[in-house]
């Protein structure tokens, strides 16, 4: 189905820059979550799905499988501005209030920074950054697989691409499948 192939190619072109952002944020030390990760999932699917099954699945099944390989981690990227805004958010502060040990370490580091030399201050800034990255990764990891996150991502992709048909199959929306 040429329409599906075109949509798949288009979707992949839209999500590749977002997937590349995953490895520049708090998930840079996790298992690689970039476009190659999505390709690997497709490859693994081809290895574990039997030939009989592959011959009998529909175009829609194939489209959904490929879309899910490329979309499943799109709730994980965060831009520098989003990171900065997030560190001021109620969600971030709430996480710290629920995780006293992390909050205590952050407070101690900030308090100590005013009374040390520049060399030690740089080391403390690095530790503070790493703690913030930990908090961000914990929050984003929990949020990235929620229905609301995917609804927002689908809306974002349709708006950004100008393609309201990106999540349609034969004129019917597949967003709620």
List the SSEs and their pairings:
Layout (H helix, E strand, L loop, with lengths): L1 H21 L12 H14 L2 H6 L2 H13 L8 H7 L3 H9 L1 H14 L4 H26 L3 H15 L6 E2 L2 E2 L4
Antiparallel strand pairs: 1-2
Helix pairs in contact: 1-4, 2-4, 7-8
Low-confidence stretches: none
Largest beta-sheet details: 2 strands, antiparallel
N-to-C CA distance: 20 Å
Q: Roughly how much helix do the residues carry, as a percent range?
A: over 70%
Shape type: elongated
Output the radius of gyration.
21 Å
Biggest sheet strand order reads 1-2
Short note summarizing the structure:
With 177 residues, the chain is mainly alpha-helical. The chain contains nine helices and two strands; from the N terminus they run αααααααααββ. The two termini are 20 Å apart.
Report on this model:
- This protein is mainly alpha-helical and 177 residues long.
- It has nine helices and two strands; from the N terminus they run αααααααααββ.
- Strands 1-2 form a two-stranded antiparallel sheet.
- A hairpin with a 2-residue loop joins strand 1 and strand 2 (172-173).
- It starts with a helix and ends with a strand.
Tags for this model:
177 residues, mainly alpha, two-stranded antiparallel sheet, 9 helices
